[in-house]
Amino acid sequence: MSDKPVSLQRAAISGLLFAVVMCTWRYFDDGDSFDQLAIRFAIYFSAFTLGFWLLYNLVTKRRADS
Q1: pTM value?
Q2: In 3-state terms, what secondary structure has residue 9?
Q3: How buried is 50 (Cβ within 10 angstroms: 0-12 exposed, 13-18 middle, 19+ buried)?
């Protein structure tokens, strides 16, 4: 299997999409204020981007090693 590691830029695009969808959902579901949404966006974006990038590349590296 020839999986390539994902770049941080592509992980950031995925993180951006995830954060936008989650904040939109929270806005319509709970009616959060802009301040709460901005904090949630920053947390969702950074956590998903870094987590996805690290985990995907770890799995890709392990598959390549075996």
Answers
A1: 0.84
A2: helix
A3: middle
Q: Which phi and psi angles does 35 have, rounded to 5°?
A: -60, -45
**Tokens found for residue 37:** 């949404």
Digit-coded pLDDT (tens) for 39-55: 999 999 999 999 999 99
Q: Are 41 and 25 in contact (CB under 8 A)?
A: no
Write the CB contacts of 11 (distance below 8 Å, at least 6 apart in sequence): 49, 50, 52, 53, 56
Distance of CA 13 to the CA centre of its chain: 8
| Residue 6 phi, psi dihedral angles, 5° rounding | -90, 140
